[in-house]
Write a structure and sequence with these properties.
The chain contains 26 helices and 11 strands. The chain has 805 residues and is of the alpha+beta class. The strands form 4 sheets. Strands 4-7-3-8 form a 4-stranded antiparallel beta sheet, with helices on both faces. A 3-stranded antiparallel beta sheet has the order 9-11-10, covered by helices on one side.
């Protein structure tokens, strides 16, 4: 613990050198403000991939943690077989089938537009209209490998029927690129993660949709590039939620302090921490993902809550001492240790999340930790200086001419009124008249009865740990420890369905994803790379036979639709070599026959036609399995199926007290996420960690006040109750502000933000309940020795208590 005399010396240093300290902080704030203007709000797909962790020291790169093996494989082969970042465009006809010149021309238009789109992987575009989509037939006794649209874009119905024959006669097209009921076709395109321009992609795809759709044709767009393109459309809504949140916090501050100082000082603290944290992003090469924008607002409110704790204690000491500087030193000498402990515990707690090997989570952890630590400047350092230059509570010293005071008040009232009207207009659009009416009604009740409300809640909290009720609270906490894991431990890692975790079911992205699963064999791909270990290895019998057996086994996995490999082409060529007899549709048993089949295909087709199946040196091959679902169970079953088969067929050719409420709130959080069906993924994990990490604050401030009260001569029970009656009121208020800073996200049109707002609000309520109810009850039960031994002389003499009833 930091000696009190050191803290007092530091506080007097701030008061004596307030101008110099203010100038230094102002210069740094200007620097961070400029850097904050360079911050980008955009998702980086490579941030979602858990790669290796490296550090650069004197020009040398050291790897201290290897990346995930799946991601290492992906990074090795993505330039060879393409990106996993796939966009899918579905063209559906409302009447008839796709085999007519108009529809087939529209498929060709979509294919060409995607080919010309910035950031696309040129060799990863496929559709029935693309030249790489081949139809293998015989004509005049010769095998022909031709485009599905051969000899060109269909102009007549007869041409369209020829396309239909090509689709039906070639395995690997129907169900994958043409719907099984022939009413839809899709075009897939891979995009390089580092080259995506989301605004450009949105404008281009919306233009394509307008040009292609008509009375009989509907365009659906899905895939991960489009998912985050859709998410970015909600960024303007973040500003609206921010305005409403600021308005709500300003009202709560006014309602609590009833002074202008009570509003602008905490708001200033929150804004200063925001500027410092946002400004630290660009120098560290960090960007803000739009899905975690709820975290900055939440952390800004965190700085505000620390400010409220500080001001509340300062007001109490000033009314007791009557001297401004003495009150500052006395209050902050007591607040300094719990404030530093709270800030460091929050910062370290969130920083620990960075051990996750996912860059997005690491960036959020660094960002959030610095945000929290900046509170040391915005609250612990600047607060004493600010309070030293403004009037203390209840004192109205006229330092300026009357006209300037009236002008200042007029500007404040005009600005505040304009901001309030603007916030109300936004709230009306976002919430609607009924919800806005409920919010305003709640505000009126709080304004009119704020003192009785805080008093009653505080009395209830104190009563919860009195007499036998403390045992009931302890029993409740134990019961929650036992019950929450029943649901929380069922929480699975990963998205249950792509898009469903971020967007509401009626969103066009999710409608398109459902259409993809409805019309085709599967919306999601699992790609397995087969390595023969040498060039031209795929021309041998054993590797191809092994791939075929593996693909057949994968098709039996739960949720699987079909598997696609080069085997389909080999078997069709083998069958056509024998006049189309189905019984000859198998992999030849001699290498020279296989080599002949590949030679026939490459000589008849075009360069690059086999790139999606084989590497150019014929060493590697792909087995692509399509799945209808995307749940944790489906993914893990698919991977386990592949591992079990590989294992069976491997051969030379094969490939303390304060932590009680914190831990309890985390368990409750996991249980709530399971019951509310909130996915635990790379987006929600850092948000939930931020909410759980800052929960210890309430217990620290409460516990610190208990120690102060005990040192003043009160018994342990009296110290606990006194701390609740004083600091507890501020904790209740700060919990209210934290809930207000997150609850408005619940009304967002972006499902993920709505769920995260509700989750953070509930976490704050859990943490408040733990800090104000559970901690006092356990303190009275455990009666920690380190606290009782703080007094000199004989041990504490407890008063006699009589239990009545």
């Amino acid at each position: 613990m930091i000696p009190k005399r050191w803290i007092e010396a530091y506080l007097w240093f701030l008061l004596r050198n307030r101008l110099a300290v203010t100038v230094v902080v102002a210069v740094m704030t200007v620097f961070f403000a400029y850097e904050a203007t360079q911050l980008k709000v955009v998702p980086q797909f490579l941030d979602f991939y858990p790669g290796p962790s490296t550090v650069h020291v004197f020009g040398h790169e050291y790897t201290w943690r290897k990346g995930h093996p799946y991601i290492n494989i992906y990074n090795t082969f993505r330039r060879m077989f393409g990106s996993a970042n796939i966009l899918t465009v579905i063209l559906e006809v409302k009447h008839g089938d796709i085999y007519n010149p108009t529809t087939l021309e529209k498929i060709d238009v979509i294919t060409k537009r995607l080919t010309e789109t910035k950031g696309v992987v040129p060799y990863q575009i496929l559709s029935v209209a693309h030249p790489k989509m081949k139809s293998i037939t015989t004509y005049g006794g010769a095998i022909q490998v031709r485009e599905v649209y051969f000899p060109g874009l269909p102009k007549t119905q007869e041409d369209a029927e020829r396309v239909k024959f090509a689709v039906y006669s070639t395995k690997g097209i129907r169900g994958l690129y043409v719907a099984l009921d022939d009413t839809a076709a899709l075009v897939t395109a891979g995009f390089w993660e580092e080259e995506l321009d989301f605004n450009y992609l949105y404008d281009r795809m919306m233009e394509l949709k307008r040009d292609v759709e008509d009375a009989n044709h509907t365009v659906y767009i899905t895939g991960f590039p489009w998912l985050y393109t859709s998410v970015l459309r909600y960024v303007p809504e973040v500003r609206e939620v921010f305005v409403i949140t600021v308005a709500a916090l300003a009202f709560l501050l006014w309602n609590y302090f009833r002074t202008w100082t009570g509003i602008w000082v905490p708001v200033f603290s929150g804004l200063l921490s925001s500027v410092w944290a946002l400004g630290m992003g660009p120098p560290l090469g960090l960007n803000l993902d739009p899905l975690v924008l709820v975290v900055p607002i939440f952390l800004s409110a965190r700085a505000l809550s620390h400010s409220v704790q500080s001001m509340d204690r300062y007001h109490e000491e000033y009314h007791r001492l009557g001297d401004k500087h003495a009150a500052i030193v006395e209050s902050y000498s007591h607040l300094f240790p719990p404030a530093i402990a709270s800030v460091l515990s929050d910062g370290i707690g969130i920083m620990l999340v960075s051990i996750a090997p996912i860059p997005l989570i690491q960036k959020i952890a660094v960002f959030s930790s610095f945000w929290i630590v900046s509170i040391i400047v915005s609250v612990v350092t600047l607060h004493p200086i600010i309070l030293s230059v403004i009037n203390p509570p209840g004192v109205h010293e006229a330092r300026y001419p009357a006209w300037s005071r009236w002008l200042g008040r007029g500007l404040v009232i005009a600005g505040g009124g304009a901001f309030a009207l603007y916030a109300l207009s936004i709230a009306f659009d976002l919430l609607g008249p009924l919800k806005l009416g409920a919010v305003l009604g709640t505000a009126v009740v709080l304004y009119r009865f704020h003192a009785p409300i805080y008093r009653v809640i505080t009395e209830w909290v104190i009563a919860a740990s009195v007499g036998r009720r403390r045992w009931a609270v302890a029993g409740l906490s134990i019961a929650l420890y036992l019950l929450c894991p029943i649901w929380g431990w069922r929480l699975k890692v990963g998205d249950m369905t792509p898009g469903a975790a971020l967007l509401f079911p009626h969103h066009p992205y999710n409608v398109a994803y459902a259409k993809l699963n409805e019309k085709f064999l599967g919306a999601n791909q699992l790609v397995v790379i087969a390595d023969t270990g040498r060039a031209d290895g795929m021309k041998d019998v054993a590797p191809l036979t092994t791939m075929e057996e593996f693909a057949d086994d994968m098709e039996a996995a739960p949720g699987a639709g079909a598997s696609v490999t080069v085997i389909d082409i080999v078997k069709q060529l083998a069958r056509l070599y024998h006049e189309g007899e189905p019984k000859w549709g198998f992999v030849p048993d001699r290498q020279k026959y296989i080599a002949e089949l590949f030679y026939t295909f490459t000589q008849t087709g075009q360069a690059g036609d086999l790139d999606r199946f084989l590497s150019t040196d014929m060493r590697y091959g792909t087995i692509i399995t399509l799945f209808h679902g995307y749940s944790h169970d489906i993914i893990m079953n698919a991977i386990d199926t592949g591992k079990r088969w590989a294992a069976a067929h491997t051969g030379e050719h094969a490939v303390g007290i304060l932590m009680i409420p914190v831990v309890l709130s985390q368990l409750a959080c996991e249980a709530f996420m399971y019951l509310w069906q909130i996915d635990l993924n790379v987006n929600s994990l850092p948000v939930a960690a931020a909410g759980a990490g800052v929960g210890v604050d309430y217990g620290i401030y409460h516990f610190s006040r208990m120690i102060d009260a005990f040192d003043e001569g009160r018994t342990l029970d009296e110290a606990v109750d006194y701390a609740t009656a004083t600091t507890g009121k501020a904790i209740i208020f700060t919990a209210t502000t934290m809930v207000a800073s997150t609850i408005f996200w619940w009304f967002s049109d972006l499902k993920f933000q709505a769920e995260m707002g509700l989750l953070l609000a509930l976490l704050m309520l859990f943490n408040t309940f733990g800090g104000l109810v559970i901690v006092p009850a356990w303190m009275k039960i455990i009666r920690p020795r380190f606290l009782l031994r703080r007094r000199t002389g004989s041990p504490e003499r407890e008063p006699v208590r009589l239990a009545v009833g």
